[in-house]
C-alpha cells in the first residue's frame, strides 16, 4: 500500500511539471511580449501552436510505443521534455522560443498517456477513477500553484528562471521514478499500427473524442487571455493578477477532484447539466464587465467547470478499449490529452481572432458557441449509449 502511495504521488508530480510547462505561458504573456518585442496576440499563438502540435504528435508517437516497455518510453520522453525546457530558458529570440515549445509539445502528450496507463495498471479497480482524476489534477495543481508562483518568479527574477526550475524538477522526478514504477509493463499485443488505430472506427469513440475538444475550445477562448482580461478588461492591478490566477487554478483543481466523483456515479449523464452551467457563465461574462467582482466570480465558475469532464471521459475511453480494443490501451489513454489540446488550439486561436477584431468583451460569447455544440454532441452520445446498453 505504501508503494502504491509513492507511485501515485510520482505520477501526479509528473503531470504537474507537464502542466506547469504548458500553462505557464498564460501567466507570462506580457513578459514574453516585452522580451521579444512582439504583440500579446503573437505570444498567445504559442499556446495555440503548443496545443496543436501536442494534439498532432501524440497519436503518432503513442502508436510508435507499440509493444516496447512503457518505462523505457516514459524515460526517453522526459529526457526530450527536459531538453525542450532548457532550450526555452536559453531562447535568444522568438523563433527559437517557438521551436523549443514545439519540441516540448511533441513529447508532452505521449508522456501523459503513458502516465495514465501506469495509473490504470497500478491502481486496484475501486481506486482507478480516483487515481486517474489525481493524475489529471496534477495539471490543475500546476494551474493553482505553479502558474501563479511562476508568474510571481517571472515578475521578480525573469521568466527564464521558471523553465530552469521545471527542468531541474523533472530530472529529480525521473530519478525517483526509476526506483518506483514497474519496468516490464507493456500494453496489449498489436502486430501492426493499423490494429491500434481500429478503435477510431467505433461510433462511441468518434462521438466521445469531440467532447474534450469542444469543452476546452469553449473555455480557452477566455482562459488564454485571462491576464489581459483581468488587467485591461476588468481593470485589476498587475499585482492582483497572481491572486486571480491562483483562485482560477484552485477552481480548476476542485473541478478535477469533483470529476473523479462524477466518474464513479452517473458519469457522462451528469455532464449535460455541467454544459448548461458552463454555457451560461460564458454568455453572462460580457454583461458583467462593468461589475468586475461579479465578472471575476463568473470566471471562477468557468474554472470550476473546466475539468469536470476529465475522469468520466477518460474512464469511458479506457472502458471501450479494455472491452473491445485491448491493443489500443495506451492510445485510448491519450485521447483526452490529444483532443483537449486540439480544443485548446482552437479556443486560443478563436480568442486571438475575437480580441483582434471585436475586443475582450467578445470572448464569452465565442466560448459559449463551442459549449453549446458540446452539449448537443453529449446528448447524442448519451442517447447512443442508452440504446446500446454500454
TrEMBL record:
GO molecular function per UniProt: transmembrane transporter activity
Segments traversing the membrane: 43-63, 70-90, 102-123, 130-151, 157-177, 205-226, 232-254, 274-293, 362-381
Superkingdom, natural source: Bacteria
Pfam families in alphabetical order: MFS_1
Domain Major facilitator superfamily (MFS) profile: 7-386
Keyword Cell membrane carried by entry: yes
PROSITE patterns membership: MFS
Membrane-protein topology: Multi-pass membrane protein
Localization per record: Cell membrane
Main location: membrane
Keywords, in A-Z order: Cell membrane, Membrane, Transmembrane, Transmembrane helix, Transport
InterPro entries assigned: MFS, MFS_dom, MFS_Efflux_Transporters, MFS_trans_sf
An example Gene Ontology CC term for this record: plasma membrane
Protein name: Major facilitator superfamily protein
Organism encoding this protein: Liquorilactobacillus oeni DSM 19972
Amino acid at each position: 500500500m505504501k508503494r502504491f502511495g509513492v507511485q501515485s504521488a510520482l505520477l501526479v508530480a509528473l503531470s504537474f511539471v507537464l502542466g506547469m510547462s504548458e500553462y505557464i505561458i498564460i501567466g507570462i504573456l506580457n513578459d514574453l511580449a516585452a522580451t521579444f518585442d512582439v504583440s500579446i496576440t503573437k505570444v498567445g499563438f504559442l499556446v495555440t501552436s503548443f496545443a496543436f502540435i501536442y494534439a498532432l504528435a501524440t497519436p503518432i508517437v503513442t502508436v510508435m510505443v507499440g509493444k516496447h516497455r512503457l518505462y523505457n518510453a516514459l524515460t526517453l520522453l522526459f529526457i526530450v521534455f527536459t531538453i525542450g525546457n532548457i532550450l526555452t530558458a536559453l531562447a535568444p529570440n522568438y523563433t527559437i522560443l517557438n521551436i523549443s515549445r514545439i519540441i516540448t509539445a511533441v513529447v508532452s502528450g505521449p508522456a501523459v498517456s503513458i502516465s495514465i496507463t501506469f495509473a490504470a495498471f497500478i491502481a486496484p479497480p475501486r481506486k482507478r477513477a480516483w487515481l486517474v482524476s489525481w493524475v489529471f489534477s496534477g495539471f490543475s495543481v500546476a494551474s493553482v500553484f505553479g502558474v501563479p508562483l511562476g508568474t510571481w518568479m517571472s515578475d521578480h527574477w525573469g521568466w527564464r528562471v521558471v523553465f530552469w526550475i521545471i527542468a531541474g524538477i523533472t530530472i529529480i522526478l525521473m530519478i525517483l521514478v526509476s526506483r518506483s514504477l514497474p519496468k516490464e509493463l507493456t500494453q496489449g499485443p498489436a502486430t501492426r499500427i493499423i490494429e491500434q488505430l481500429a478503435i477510431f472506427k467505433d461510433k462511441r469513440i468518434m462521438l466521445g473524442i469531440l467532447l474534450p475538444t469542444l469543452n476546452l475550445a469553449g473555455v480557452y477562448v477566455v482562459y488564454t487571455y485571462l491576464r489581459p482580461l483581468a488587467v485591461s478588461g476588468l481593470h485589476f492591478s498587475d499585482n492582483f493578477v497572481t491572486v486571480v490566477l491562483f483562485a482560477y487554478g484552485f477552481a480548476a483543481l476542485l473541478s478535477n477532484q469533483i470529476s473523479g466523483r462524477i466518474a464513479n456515479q452517473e458519469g457522462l449523464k451528469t455532464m449535460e447539466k455541467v454544459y448548461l452551467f458552463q454555457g451560461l457563465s460564458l454568455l453572462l461574462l460580457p454583461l458583467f464587465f462593468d461589475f468586475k467582482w461579479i465578472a471575476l466570480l463568473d470566471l471562477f465558475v468557468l474554472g470550476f467547470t473546466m475539468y469536470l469532464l476529465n475522469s468520466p471521459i477518460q474512464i469511458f475511453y479506457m472502458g471501450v478499449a479494455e472491452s473491445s480494443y485491448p491493443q489500443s490501451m495506451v492510445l485510448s489513454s491519450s485521447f483526452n490529452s490529444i483532443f483537449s489540446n486540439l480544443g485548446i488550439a482552437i479556443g486560443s486561436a478563436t480568442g486571438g481572432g475575437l480580441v483582434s477584431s471585436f475586443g475582450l468583451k467578445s470572448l464569452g460569447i465565442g466560448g459559449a458557441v463551442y459549449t453549446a455544440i458540446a452539449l448537443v454532441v453529449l446528448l447524442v452520445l448519451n442517447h447512443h449509449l442508452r440504446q446500446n446498453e454500454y
